[in-house]
Amino acid sequence: MAWIIHKTDHAIKQKMEELDRENRARFAAVCATWRAAALWHRRLPALPLLLATTGNSCATGRQGRTAPRNGRALRIALPWFPWGNRLVGSYDGGWIATASSSDQLLLVNLFSGARAPLSEQQSAIVCACPLPIRRDTILTSSRRCGRALHVKKIICSTDPSSSSCILAAMTNQCSIALCRVGSNGRWRTRGCSRYIAYGHLVLEDIAFVNGELYGITHNELFWFDISFDKDGNPVATPLRLPVIEMDALHAHPGTRYIFQLRSNIAIAVEIWPLISLGSSAIFKVFELSDSGRRWEEVMSLDGYALFLGPACCKAMPMPVTNVRSGVEGNRIYYSKQHSSPHNNKDCLARLDLGSCTVYCCQSKVGRHLERITSRGYHYEEWDGCNGCNACMWLVPPQF
Fold first, then answer.
1. Which of 227, 236, 241, 372 has its CA 20 to 30 A from that of 211?
2. Which residues contact 208 (CB under 8 A, 6 or more apart)?
């Protein structure tokens, strides 16, 4: 009966209609068994690697280094890595988004060398918000701000090589910036912080969930309605979602992350941000309820491992054994820039990643207190003369 698993649902339905009631029940039972076996052996996506760099071409340009979560350093030649650039985002399949010291953008696949077709106008983000007639009014002129923006994070709606891919960026001045890859258009910005009347949002993180763009501030969730102007450029309009009990998050001052868990919107909140005596940070995870109006705390990730970082947040499915290549399910793996992790270096494991110093620690609090365990990768903000360090999760292609 092994051939049943390769039949389409339509073919199986036709076959069942030819059977009597008793044989139909037997046939359905066999199909269920084979479907369960197929799920057991489903092919899982590649696990993220931790890409570490100093951001200094002289210090790290000689060799690329990635580190899996089991602590083993994996040295890989990365000929297409733009050495000296900051890491500001990634996408499944080996894509990274980087920004130069002058905030020139580049999206490149580290494993194939392919580049996203960004036009000259899209290679940097400038504030496209209209200038107000006065700072205290919403009446605007036809002139644009035009100030170059510092990029904090970039996410992709789909594969960056696709002309349907929309890039969303967090910047130092405008709440959100959007552009469509492969077009002759430009970045469109929203929520300039220079003018109070523009309603600037201090976003802590953004994510595409089921193709929709969401952002989170310290205590509010926003959905961005994406439309297109007459030139085909995407424009984002933020709409606050009336989720109740967001005030409960005020008790936790730590960093917020937003991501997709299964098919739902979820956030992770750092509630114990300090590393002490080799113990990692503790997080609480909340999932938006089916009604979309209440955050429900997640006590277990149910077959997922969660990877958190400033430039990439990803929930990865795990096999039924809940362990894969040293990675455990129901655990959070996070990377975090720290001003002085060396203060605790005597009780932290140091990873051999070459020029970028990374210390590893894991939670030691009882499971009954934290529910979901965590493992942290802390890197120093500056490492001597090596420049600005960075670590980012990167999902490689299937090998």
1. 372
2. 155, 156, 157, 168, 214, 260
